[in-house]
Amino acid sequence: MLADRDEHVAREKGLAALAVQSGEEVLEIGYGTGHSLVELARLTGTEGKVCGIDISTGMQEAALNRLKEEGFADQVDLRVGVVPPIPWPDNSFDVITMSFTLELFPLDEIPGVLEEVKRVLRPEGRLGVVSMSVTPEGQKDSLLEKTYKWMHQHFPHAVDCQPIPAAQLLEDAGFTNTYREDLEIWTLPVVVLVSKAGVHQLFGVVGDAINPLVDAIRRDDRFEWIHVRHEEVAAFAASAQAKLTGTLGVCAGTVGPGAIHLLNGLYDAKKDSAPVLAITGQVPRDDVGSDYHQEVNLDALFSDVSIFNETLNSVGQMPRLIQQAVSTAISRRGVAHISIPSDLGPAKVENPGELSTAIQPIAEVTPGAKDLQKVAKILNDAKKVAIMCGCGCRDSTEELLAIAEKLQAPIVHALRGKDLVPHDHPYWVGGTGLLGSKAGHHAIEESDVLLMVGTDFPYRAWLPHDKKVVQIDIRPEHIGKRCPVQAGLVGHAGSTLAALTEHVDKRSDSSFLKEIQKRRESWQKSLDEEADVKRSSDLIHPQAIAGIAGELADDDAVFCVDTGEVTVWGARHMKLRGTQRYLMSFNLASMAFAMPGALGVQALDRKRQVIAFSGDGGFSMLMGDFITAVNFDLPIKVIVFNNGKLGLVKMEMEVAGYPEYGTDLKNPDFAAIAKVCGGGGIRVTEPGKLQGAIKEAFSTPGPFLVDVVCNGEELTMPPKIEIAQAWGFSLAKLKEMAISTGK
């Protein structure tokens, strides 16, 4: 019988049934055979003898140890050998099963292996179950066709050599309905509940400890399992989904290394208050604390990153524990972690229908009249008011603009608020901080009172310490956290601003606003000059890449931006329209967020334009997952700012007075890599071809990468420069000159 290539468990149970029925010897050939043999031996009992050849020498020791631990050492004969030849005598097996992971097994060895199968199979023997995992693109059909043809020729007595469903295979083997009943532990408590939270995709890498979860997803039409190549990508993708929608993102990793790989992406979610559920496998409960193979103390490991962190200890806990995890992640906007020991996978949940579906977000809160009047008096008494907003104003832009108009106050945004309002709105004057604008900096510096709304802007050097500040935030611990405040209002930004607007006086004097608007126009003119692709005939300036991509993007495009110099170009030269979104690793500031984040966003809507701005350093960290975009039809557009350097680190070194060292990158042709993966790609080295290349990327269906070789010596100037910074930069340049001349 020939099972579907993804029916791994069915193959094992079907083979075990054949072994029991024959009462004689069974041979399994494949990669990772040793662990499968444990399950086969468990099901066959003492009636059949199970033998195996494991192509992987690296897995032999772990498999042998597990066989001994579970009492199957005498029943299972595991050998490791390079096949062909198979290290057993001729005509020695009644049943043979074959399992190939064809990314790891050389295709040209398949015919030889099949010849060996014929040699060691007894004349009256049966070719049991053949399972082939993913094959290289374009080779699967031809390879399977050749395999089927060979089998028909040499095994005419074999059962029909066509794929048959796992359900039929199990029914023939006497396992009717057992498998589906086993899935109840995962299907109802995990899959059903997260679906009620609006989740329809899970990102992760498969592994034995989470195989029941993955298979439950496969059998449920409501869900899509997106198999990434690195668990960090899974966590970034889930985090990006949560940032975009405000709802739950979910990722999963198996025991040990798989769980560890999730951490960086989960810290990104934590730092940006994104609700994410992380599901990890764990070793069997009886082996916890014994330094078991791949065992890691996951409770300790996830204790800092998560706001909910529990390991399942019994089947009965599952419904309410999953309910708590989901509710906590959503209501407290953070990471929830559930660890599930592998021995609970085949268990059955009693009364799964008792799951609660009451998942509620935080209710809107509005301050009392007395507090509102106190803040209103401070604003009314001021001559010059500036407003600083952040992502807490996501759903409150109407109220934000209304109070700005009444106060005639310029609005400065933190980077997380960049996409709230169209860039050319008269009250919108740019950002603050190192990535901000001169207009934004002057608005804060020259105001009498600063009204901070929905922002936890962390850079104290860019906040006032000698003037009045009033702050509105939904989280009381944020009030006064970054700078002294004269008054604070705890409440939802929209309802609080609406109530406060009723108490403030309407201003007729707009001189301060007009002065800041003039500074904004001057600053924008200088930015446009920097972004003009025609200002150089031989160098592509990175400002031009951001500017052109922004102009050509759709009105509802989502930009996912990396950390590094590319952050500067995106923050300053992207003219967002108020209907677009701008995501990055804001507070963790991790490299490599852009493409994984784009994968997560694109999976939500394959028709929406999603653009990743990747630095060459960040992209090369996780570039293997461009394959994921191809495999899952995620038409992301990746623009690589290829300046051959860790540019922001270089600048930080020089500002601190250190000469540049260790920041150079020797990069491959990223466009060629994209093409090899099955996507589109183009490499740009000339300014005159930049716009055409980006147009081609945006108009081409499917994943596409633009590798732009740009100037590696571009200066990133902050809105204000301190004397110490200028001195450090000059000193570093002198040191670099001395090093280059050997003096």
Q: Give the rounded overall mean pLDDT.
A: 81
In one word, what is the shape? Answer: globular
Assembly category: single chain
Which percent range fits the helix content? 25-40%
Task: Could you tell me the CATH topology label of the largest domain.
Answer: Rossmann fold
Count of DSSP helices? 28
Please write the CATH class name of the largest domain: Alpha Beta
Feature tags:
alpha/beta; six-stranded parallel beta sheet; thiamine pyrophosphate; 28 helices; globular; 743 residues; Rossmann fold; POXB-like; disordered C terminus; THDP-binding; 4 domains; SAM-dependent_MTases_sf
Structural overview:
The chain has 28 helices and 25 strands. The chain is of the alpha/beta class and 743 residues long. It has four domains: 2-179, Rossmann fold (3-Layer(aba) Sandwich); 184-346, Rossmann fold, CATH 3.40.50; 369-519, Rossmann fold (3-Layer(aba) Sandwich), CATH 3.40.50; 531-709, 3-Layer(aba) Sandwich (Rossmann fold). It has a six-stranded parallel beta sheet with strand order 9-8-10-11-13-12, with helices on both faces. A six-stranded parallel beta sheet has the order 16-15-14-17-18-19, with helices on both faces. It has a six-stranded parallel beta sheet with strand order 21-20-22-23-25-24, sandwiched between helices. Helix 16 (397-407) packs parallel to helix 18, helix 20 (542-552) runs parallel beside helix 27 and helix 25 packs across helix 28 (723-741). The protein is globular. The chain starts with a strand and ends with a helix.
